[in-house]
Design brief:
It is a single chain. This protein is of the alpha/beta class. It has four domains: about 10-95, no CATH class; about 95-165, Alpha-Beta Plaits; about 190-360, Rossmann fold; about 370-585, P-loop containing nucleotide triphosphate hydrolases (Rossmann fold), CATH 3.40.50. It has 24 helices and 23 strands. The strands form four sheets. The protein has a seven-stranded parallel beta sheet. Strands 19-20-18-21-22-17-23 form a seven-stranded parallel beta sheet, sandwiched between helices. The radius of gyration is 26 Å and the shape is globular.
Amino acid sequence: MAYQPNNPLMIQSDMSVLFEVDHPDATTIRHVLSDFAELEKSPEHVHTYRITPLSLWNAAASGRTLEQILDLFEQYSKFDIAPNVIQEIRDQFDRFGLLTLTREGDRLILVSQDPSILRKVFRFKSMKPYVAEWIDEVHVAVTASNRGRLKQDLIKIGYPVQDLAGYTEGSPLPFQLRESCLSGEPFALRTYQTVAVDSFYAGGSSRGGSGVLVLPCGAGKTVIGIAAAAKIGAETLILTSSVTAARQWIAEILDKTTVREDQIGEYSGAQKVIRPITVATYQIVSRNSGKAVQDHLNLFNERNWGLIIYDEVHLLPAPVFRVTADIQARRRLGLTATLIREDGLESDVFTLIGPKKYDVPWKELERSGWIATADCREIRVALEEQEQINYAAANARTQARLAAEANGKNTVVKRLLQKHCEDQVLIIGQYLSQLKKLQQQIQAPMITGQTSMKNRDELYHKFRTGAIHCLIVSKVANFAIDLPDANVAIQISGQFGSRQEEAQRLGRILRPKKQENQAYFYSLVAKNTKEQEFAMNRQRFLTEQGYAYRITEALPAESDQVTKEVNASIASLDAYRQKKRKLEE
């Protein structure tokens, strides 16, 4: 193939793909490319994708063909493609179809049209216990209860299985989406939400019914999950990250569907009610021991579930992974903003929940106005002289803590609060002692893991209604907190270099705004410390999504008079806002 200077794809011999996104056919190209390659970086003009065995198996599992990939390369590649790239893609695609799981009555059958493949697979010591019976040279009966573990071990040895054994239908629970919410506001799925649901459902065939949908925070993943449940029309178990998230799911179901209140149960530390739709927390089914944990894990078999939804699937704890391996006959839907797992267990999500069925870049939804535009800034704060001495003498772990709790950050927080005095601000941190010290200085309410659910709900309600403009929150607010009017987040410390946490914290302020659809994300970082190194890694996921971090340095501390003025501004803000609302009324 001759050099094509106007084509936007450059396929490298290391299996990376460079994509010039200003091309007129960029949308069409991205739609195919994202199915078989993982997005690594997405700055303004050239995005980088990575082709991996897992990404290719994902594509094959979702129905993407080898011919479609090669056609994309043929049509849009700028240069000739190295033979090793084409051969690797062929090899991985061919591997996905070599083994198939089917069902004959109560028996699960592993099938291969090539006898040598089955012989090769079962030479592995880890595979021998799965054999119930060699039916013939191309059919092996395996124990149905080992369906998930079999799939895990097959992918570890490089032979992903196509699972066509189907699902139990579950007890029927027909319900519909409303055309208007309980408030009377019109309700309908957005176009991308409909596409996501259809990608998962796949017309009800065995190719659908299990998989992961990847969408940014604020894009309406809860609504997508509810719509998928309505499509299936069966009893549904929903697993969430917290009691607050569980209650938000329940409120959304009642608001947007015909499900009755007596058909929904909450299974958490606060109450344990099991009904046709049950919303449970990961904590209650995994943070106990002995008989207690087994009692909670029995929830998965308590009713004849037709669908299990895993909200924030990237958080899936090990006990839930284990039980999920045993319930492969149930339809399974994973929802997440990012499939990044710091423990590297993305392949377990693939095998036990299902392949990625749909994703959409954050910036694409931002351009369409479905999520807020975000201005991301890193502010570097110098350590005070004594802090520098303490930091130099400390071990690595203590250094990380000292950097996170740098005194100068509180001064910057006060300045930002003055700048955003009419905005809804979340201040997020890792360490309780740091948050309490800040609270004493700015007199803002605070939510931590020790805050009762009643007090949390009251504070969230006041924040939503504008009665308070600033909340200090610990890492309990990293996930699934519905604060649609929050438009400023100030991150004062975090969990080392967690990209996952960075994405989730930005997500707290990305819900679309009623007026100016603009959000501000500030990350305060101690200058010339390990925290500065962690910040680079934390920001990587978001910069790959196209967000640019502007880096500035905090000015030296100014006079006490400035601090007094800032504190006075903060203290009088609530009174000012109340007067303003009365005048508007």
